[in-house]
Write a structure and sequence with these properties.
single chain; about 425 residues; alpha/beta; Lyase, Ornithine Decarboxylase, Chain A, domain 1; TIM Barrel; 2 domains; 9-stranded mixed sheet; 8-stranded parallel barrel; globular; binds ligand LLP
């Protein structure tokens, strides 16, 4: 396995992350434990930002999709790097507001935002509300007008593109709960309506085709489709939209089987087509917004567990039970997502045993990975599951009343807690 660049093995044969010994981290903070390398997050944000600056003459914005991993310190890091943030709920918006995230760099998504959330967004003055459907467009117009405000919006368009990824994380095809359909004319009608409604100022368009995508073609195709639509809007209404949000979705390496391109390469390929197409259509190159989530945080994170029971069923398989599971990482249970794991205190030994990693929930499907190769294990070993920085903490739950683990941030050999572990007291806090 080609480890993410933050990982290494030290002279004790222990796995390290961001210069910190993972066995020491486990001893100091307890397990399960989410660990993230701040430098990896900052580098990814900078690389994306640089690609935007290099490839688009009219500039753009990297808006981190905070659904991938949202807590205050991540919001601070994104803010400090001069990036924007994509939020999809009052809760994510609130987290960004708590760190004083500049409102103009916030993009507010969601296919069924509540009245309270829309009010909250308008009160805070978020930069762009991404309107998902016609019902929401009318609702937002009413709310904005009643507050004597104008909502700066994008319309989310479903461009009709099939991306090769898991069905649950595809979003660009016509049969999707997200966005306004392009093919049947709904999108053009929505644009016309948006330009007429009070309290609404249409600034541009948005699309997002899915997540964990490696092939550049669907990204290129989506950009072309959207630019053609901008040209069609100009023809039919005279309105020239000059902001285009192309969403996120760039794939990351979970195992040896994944081979993502450098993100700068995706950016270069998409921008080349977009710039050329704009010239052909005699359109200004739009201000480009991208919303990467997974690719910014996934490679920065690992999860540490302590190995408990080991059960060998001869001729069947060996179960290795850990002190976490689907409550801190539901992605295998949900999508059968592949992961790489390593025994952190034996990282220099050969991975020549086959185990199924089981969580501790009362649920047979509570697995992290099935039949993967690991170093020979015994009770008390520390297991590291790699590339867990995205959609793990953010999708965690309290099933079986299991408290959420802490998140520790490491940087150049120094560690600090950025999210405290939940206590039993936290679990009953809202119980009457
Ligand atoms: N923008 C929009 C509008 C999105 O819906 C998403 C992801 C993103 C950006 C960020 O996509 P990314 O760069 O992270 O691929 N829970 C699933 C992933 C769901 C993605 C939902 N939307 C998983 O664990 O794989």
């Amino acid at each position: 396995m080609l480890y993410p660049e933050t990982l290494n093995v030290n002279e004790h044969g222990h796995l390290t992350i961001g210069g910190c010994d993972t066995v020491e981290l486990a001893n100091r903070y307890g397990t399960p434990l989410y660990v993230m390398d701040e430098n990896v997050i900052r580098k990814a944000l900078r690389d994306y930002k640089k690609s935007i600056d290099e490839n688009y003459q009219n500039g753009g914005m990297v808006a981190y999709a905070s659904k991938a991993c949202c807590f205050k310190e991540i919001c601070r890091i994104v803010m400090q790097e001069g990036c924007g943030i994509d939020v999809v709920s009052g809760g994510e918006l609130y987290t960004a507001m708590q760190v004083g995230f500049p409102a103009e760099r916030i993009y507010f998504h969601g296919n069924n935002k509540t009245v309270a959330e829309l009010r909250m967004a308008l009160d805070y003055g978020v930069g762009r509300i991404v309107v998902d459907n016609i019902t929401e467009l009318h609702l937002l117009s009413e709310i904005a007008a009643s507050m004597e405000k104008t909502a700066d919006i994008y319309l989310r368009i479903t461009p009709g593109i099939e991306a090769h990824t898991h069905d649950f994380i595809k979003t660009g095809q016509i049969d999707s709960k997200f966005g306004i359909t392009l093919e049947n004319g709904d999108a053009l009608n929505a644009v016309k309506t948006a330009t007429e409604l009070i309290g609404i100022s249409l600034k541009g368009l948005h699309c997002h085709i899915g997540s964990q995508i490696f092939d550049e073609q669907p990204f290129i195709h989506a950009a072309e489709v959207m630019l053609n639509f901008i040209a069609q809007i100009r023809e039919q209404t005279g309105v020239v939209l000059n902001e285009l949000n192309l969403g996120g979705g760039f794939g990351v390496r979970y195992t040896d089987k994944d081979s993502p391109k450098e993100y700068s390469e995706y950016m270069r390929l998409v921008s080349a087509v977009l710039n050329e197409k704009a010239e052909k259509l005699n359109l200004p190159v739009p201000y480009i917004v991208i919303e990467p989530g997974r690719s910014i945080v996934a490679p920065a994170g690992i999860t540490l567990y302590t190995v408990g029971s080991i059960k060998e069923i001869p001729g069947i398989r060996s179960y290795l039970s850990i002190d976490g599971g689907m409550t801190d990482n539901p992605r295998y249970a949900l999508y059968k997502s592949p992961y790489t794991a390593v025994v952190a205190n034996k990282a220099d030994r050969p991975a020549d045993c086959v185990y199924t990693i089981a969580g501790r929930c009362c649920e047979s499907g509570d697995l992290i990975q099935e039949n993967i190769k690991l170093q020979r294990c015994q009770r008390g070993d520390i297991l590291a599951v790699l590339t867990t920085g995205a959609y793990n903490y953010s999708m965690s739950s309290n099933y079986n009343r299991i408290p959420r683990p802490a998140v520790v941030m490491v940087r150049d050999g120094v560690s600090r807690i950025v999210v405290k572990a939940e206590s039993y007291e936290d679990l009953v806090r809202n119980d009457i």
